[in-house]
Specification:
Oligomer: single chain
Number of domains: 1
CATH superfamily: NAD(P)-binding Rossmann-like Domain
Order of helices and strands: HEEHEHE
Shape: elongated
Strand content: 15-25%
Helix content: 25-40%
CATH topology: Rossmann fold
Structural class: alpha/beta
Radius of gyration: 16 Å
CATH class: Alpha Beta
Largest sheet: 2 strands, parallel
CATH architecture: 3-Layer(aba) Sandwich
Strand order of the largest sheet: 1-4
Number of helices: 3
Length: 92
C-alpha cells in the first residue's frame, strides 16, 4: 500500500505543479504517542528503541514540526516527496 500511496502522490504532484498546491506523504514509525496507550512500556519499549538507529523514539513535536514546515511558507517548493520520519529505521 505504501507504493500505491507514493504513486498517487507523484501523480498529484505533477497534476498540481504550478498551482500553489504541494503534496507530501509523511511515513512515521516509532513515534511515542498517547495513542499507543501504554503498549510501549518496559521491555517492549526498550526493543523499539534498540532497533531504532538514533537510539530513541520520535516525538509528536518532531512530527508536528515537519507538518508545520510542509504547510508553511518555506515548504512551497517541496512537492511529491515522502518523508520517512523514523529515526533511520528504514535506512538501507
Amino acid at each position: 500500500s505504501k507504493a500505491g500511496v507514493e504513486g498517487l502522490l507523484r501523480g498529484l504532484a505533477k497534476e498540481t505543479a504550478g498551482t500553489g498546491v504541494t503534496t507530501a506523504v509523511i511515513a512515521p514509525a516509532n513515534i511515542d504517542t498517547d495513542i499507543m496507550g501504554g503498549r510501549l512500556e518496559g521491555e517492549r519499549r526498550e526493543q523499539f528503541v534498540a532497533r531504532t538507529p538514533v537510539g530513541r523514539l520520535g516525538t509528536t513535536e518532531e512530527l508536528g514540526e515537519l507538518v508545520a514546515y510542509l504547510v508553511g511558507a518555506h515548504g512551497g517548493f517541496t512537492t511529491g516527496a515522502t518523508y520517512n520520519l523514523n529515526g533511520g529505521l528504514r535506512v538501507g
